[in-house]
Each structure stands twice: as structure tokens, then as C-alpha cells.
From TrEMBL:
Species for this entry: Maribacter ulvicola
Protein's name in the database: Predicted arabinose efflux permease, MFS family
Transmembrane segments: 15-36, 48-68, 80-100, 112-141, 153-173, 179-199, 229-254, 266-284, 296-325, 378-402
Lineage: Bacteria, Pseudomonadati, Bacteroidota, Flavobacteriia, Flavobacteriales
UniProt keyword annotations, A-Z: Cell membrane, Membrane, Transmembrane, Transmembrane helix, Transport
Subcellular location: Cell membrane
One GO term describing the cellular component: plasma membrane
Protein topology in the membrane: Multi-pass membrane protein
Pfam short name (any one): MFS_3
Length: 420
């Protein structure tokens, strides 16, 4: 096996199974979120209700993130991932039951809405463990010398699932309705669970088993805040996603501004992921290690521009192009961030570092959804999206000025050291 082989990670059987598991879970999760968004906005016609969905997931995800990272570093990863998927399956089944026609006819809208929020909250608890577990498991399946290649394929799989999940959600809502769409989601969670049993249990590499929890958390936070490359990448991406959370408002654009229905909603929701997936596939041939800092800054700047164009657009095709390009540049950002984390993080701290990553970046998606919903309520949908894009541009400019070391970040040497 050549370390510069674009398919190096795919030559490991368990890694291919891992990709199947990740695809099924991301597909199910992204499709579920879209179906929930559509159902909630159809029930309430209130932009703030979309923001509350994000808030209900982000509260438990953030509050439990550090403790989840500690537990992940102390436990066997495969079995922990099995428990996470089982938890997601229970939540999906609960949403399936809440969307039963008989339930919708029997109970008040407010009661059903509260039930959805409770299940989304439980999903946030599951997600607090899911991300760190997946991040840690990758490092136990492939050798260190192909971590960058494995990270690229893992991110690409994530984006491909994020393309198909929202796209299918839009068409599925139109063809079979919300209720049976939730049944499809439940089926994909069972597929992920079945495939995961074909991966063997992995050793626990943490030499400090039984370490006091607060000492463990302090060690993880200290590492992140002392490693400037990691901290810079997480902070930049967090701010960009926080203020660029226009995708949370897509049901409003689809129904009230562009007037394209659920099918158009599916296309709009999938467009960013299509762009990101193509970027990631290209990166397997053309790595982004060299001048990573400059590329990351340019990518986030491009993301902000795309959000402004999308917010101002009243044409469906222009909106789709803007979202597609936003996904393409966001794909660059994701690959560079994941490569930094894989290269800079010691094996015994992967769970805690991934948890901090989920607090910075993953949870900022939901906070961004809440921010977008709130600003749309206060200043209007279009103004909210343009405001978010403008704040993203401001963040990039500020980062470039105050952090010249990050601007000059280059990962080429780190990649070469791992390949030796």
C-alpha cells in the first residue's frame, strides 16, 4: 500500500464497514432533521419554532459534550457506538409514532409540538456521545500514516449522506408523507446498527483509565486551548456556522419566498451538501495540506459571500447555485479542520478533543439555527440571512488580522511526518 494512494483507507475492510455505518447514520439524522423542520413549520408557520428545534438539540449536546468526551476516552468505542445508534433508533421510532394520523387527530398541536421538542432534546444527548465516538473509532481502524486520507473519505461519506438525506426528505414528504418518511429514517438506523456488528471490538488506548473526571476534562480543554492550530480552526468555523445558519430558514424560503414546495425544499437543502461532496471527492486527488490557513480563511470568506447572495435572491436557480457554492467552500473548511484534528490530537485524548469540536462547530449549527430563527422573527427572513453572511465576512477579516500565525498555517510537514 502506498501512503499517497488516494484509496489507501478504502483498502481496509473494517473502514469500508465504518463508512457504511456513518453514511446510514448521517443519512438518517439529516433526513430526520429536515422532516422535523418541515412538520414543525407546517404546524406553526412561526420562524421561531424552527430556531427552537435547534435550541432543543444544542442544549444537551453542549452541556454533556465534555463529560461525553471523558467517557468515550475511558470506554471501548465499538460497543459505545452501538449504544448511541440504539438511542437514535428509539428517538426515530418515537417521532414515527408522533406522526401517526390518529395521533395528529387526537392531540392538540401544542402537545405534539412539545413531544417533538422532547425527542429532539434526547437526540442532543445522543449526539454528545456519537461524534466523539466516531472520531475516536476511525483512529483504531486505520494506521496513523493514512489518517489524512481516512479523514477525507470519512468527511466525503458524511457529505454524500448529507446530500441524499435532505434531498430524499423533500421528495419523501411529497410522495409518502411525514409519517412514512420517519419509517424510512428508522430503517436506516437499523441498517447502521446491523453493519456495526461486523467491526470488532477495539483496545482502549487511554493509559489513565479511572482518571478523575474533572482532571480529565481540564486536560482536554488545556490541550485544545494551547494548540493554536486546533483552536483557530474550531473558532473560525464556529463563528461562520453560527452566523451563516441560513439553512435553518429554508422551509420559509421554499414555502413563502421562492414558492417551490417540498420538492424545491429538498433541492435547496441538498445543494450545499452536493457542493461539499464534490469538493471532498476532488480533495482525494488534490490534497489541501499546503497553505492550509490561507485556504481555510478564503473558504469561510466565500461561504459568507454565498449566504449574502442566497439571502437577496428571489430566483430559485440563483438560490440553488449560491447554496451549492456555499457547500463547495464549506467542504474545504471541513477537510482542513478534520485533518488538523486527526494530525494534532494524541490517541488517548481523541474523545475529549472531539467533544470540544462538537461544542465549537457541531453545536454551532443548532445555535446558528436558533440565531437565524430569532433574527428572522425580529428583522425579517431576508435581512437575517444577509446579516449572518456579513458577520461571517467580518469574522474572517478579524481573524486574518489578529492571528498571522494561523494565516501562515501549513500542514505539509505534519502529513509527511505521519507518512514516515
Amino acid at each position: 500500500m502506498r501512503v499517497n494512494d488516494s484509496y489507501a483507507a478504502l483498502r481496509f475492510k473494517e473502514f469500508n464497514i465504518f463508512l457504511l455505518v456513518r453514511f446510514a447514520m448521517v443519512f438518517a439524522w439529516s433526513m430526520q432533521f429536515i422532516v422535523i423542520e418541515w412538520q414543525v413549520y407546517s404546524m406553526t408557520k412561526d420562524p421561531l419554532s424552527l430556531g427552537i428545534i435547534g435550541l432543543m438539540e444544542v442544549i444537551p449536546a453542549v452541556s454533556m459534550a465534555l463529560f461525553a468526551g471523558h467517557i468515550v476516552d475511558q470506554k471501548e468505542k465499538r460497543n459505545l457506538l452501538i449504544k448511541c445508534i440504539c438511542g437514535f433508533s428509539v428517538i426515530s421510532f418515537g417521532l414515527f409514532m408522533l406522526s401517526l394520523p390518529s395521533v395528529l387527530e387526537t392531540y392538540e398541536t401544542k402537545s405534539i409540538l412539545y413531544g417533538i421538542y422532547v425527542l429532539v432534546f434526547c437526540g442532543g444527548l445522543v449526539r454528545a456521545f456519537l461524534g466523539p465516538t466516531i472520531f475516536s473509532l476511525i483512529a483504531l481502524i486505520v494506521p496513523k500514516k493514512i489518517y489524512p486520507n481516512a479523514a477525507t473519505w470519512s468527511s466525503t461519506t458524511w457529505q454524500m449522506a448529507a446530500v441524499l438525506g435532505p434531498a430524499l426528505a423533500g421528495f419523501s414528504i411529497s410522495l409518502i408523507g411525514v409519517h412514512w418518511s420517519m419509517c424510512v429514517i428508522f430503517g436506516f438506523s437499523l441498517l447502521a446498527l446491523t453493519a456495526l456488528f461486523n467491526i470488532s471490538k477495539k483496545p482502549i488506548l487511554n493509559p489513565k483509565l479511572g482518571e478523575p473526571v474533572f482532571q480529565s476534562l481540564r486536560e482536554g480543554l488545556t490541550f485544545v486551548f494551547k494548540t493554536r492550530a486546533v483552536l483557530g480552526a474550531l473558532t473560525l468555523d464556529m463563528i461562520a456556522v453560527l452566523f451563516g445558519g441560513a439553512v435553518a430558514l429554508l422551509p420559509i424560503f421554499a414555502q413563502d419566498i421562492l414558492h417551490v414546495g417540498s420538492e424545491g425544499f429538498g433541492v435547496l437543502r441538498a445543494a450545499p451538501a452536493v457542493g461539499a461532496a464534490l469538493t471532498m471527492l476532488g480533495s482525494t486527488r488534490f490534497p489541501l495540506h499546503k497553505n492550509a490557513g490561507k485556504k481555510l480563511l478564503l473558504a469561510v470568506f466565500g461561504f459568507g459571500v454565498c449566504m449574502i447572495v442566497f439571502g437577496l435572491s428571489t430566483y430559485f436557480w440563483l438560490s440553488v447555485i449560491a447554496l451549492f457554492l456555499s457547500g463547495a467552500v464549506d467542504g474545504v473548511s471541513m477537510i482542513i479542520r478534520q485533518t488538523i484534528l486527526q494530525l494534532k490530537t494524541p490517541d488517548n485524548m481523541r474523545g475529549r478533543v472531539a467533544s470540544v469540536n462538537s461544542m465549537f462547530v457541531g453545536s454551532s449549527n443548532e445555535l446558528g439555527a436558533f440565531e437565524s430563527g430569532l433574527t428572522a422573527k425580529l428583522m425579517g427572513t431576508v435581512t437575517a440571512v444577509v446579516f449572518g453572511g456579513t458577520m461571517t465576512l467580518f469574522t474572517v477579516g478579524l481573524t486574518a488580522i489578529v492571528s498571522p500565525k494561523f494565516r501562515k498555517l501549513d500542514l505539509q510537514k505534519d502529513v509527511e511526518d505521519h507518512e514516515r
